Amino acid sequence: MEYQLTIIVPVYNEEDNLLRVEKEFCNYMHIATVPSQVLFVNDGSTDGSQILIERICENRKGFKYIELAKNRGLSTAMKVGFDYVDTPLIGYIDADLQTSPKDFNLLLEYAADYDLVTGIRANRKDSLVKKGISRIANTIRRAFTQDGILDTGCPLKIIKANTAKRIPMFRGLHRFLPAMVLLQEGRIKQIPVQHFPRQAGHSKFGLNQRFLSPLFDCFAYLWMKRRYINYNIRKKSKDLI
What we know:
Layout: E1 5-11, H1 18-31, E2 36-42, H2 49-59, E3 63-67, H3 74-84, E4 89-93, H4 104-108, E5 116-121, H5 128-145, E6 156-160, H6 161-164, H7 177-183, E7 188-193, H8 207-227
Parallel strand pairs: 1-2, 1-4, 2-3, 5-7
Antiparallel strand pairs: 4-6, 5-6
Helix pairs in contact: 5-8
């Protein structure tokens, strides 16, 4: 099978969720509108996640994995996925499955015409505190980036691989993927998707990761935006790759 979509699933101490991830993706692959596979990126988990990941990949077609030697954070896990994916489209979803793999089909309807299709968590099933911090952080980030994205933290996205591989990744950049796509003069589409309560495990992001770090990263983004190199080729020699 020639896969068209590789879905990156970053994993950090999610052993209680992985069997459900396996089940949900096996169900999704039967209804996916394009041939799809899963790439687990184990970000240095210290629980039994790697054992389960290897078991899933051995027993299921369309599941692959990369294990990092140390925990490096979500942006690093995403960059690893971008580096190793060889399909035209790249998807992203969190291992806690607060969003549904089935909603990738909603995003795929627009993937041919847009460089990034990102979800908006409708009827978000998080605590009032978590939603409040996220709302403030999103407002501040939009003021800096002017990207117009309503829910940059939504863990359900599809991005064209040739766009993803051109993004200069840095720690915390996962919050700025839409803004970085716009720096490439790319097109973005936002689609409402389902959201669910976390069923197992616990969030890896506290106040610092949800508010303070993103605030500092906004200044890093402005620095990069002023110095970002972007170009389009009008013509080239036929013997150039």
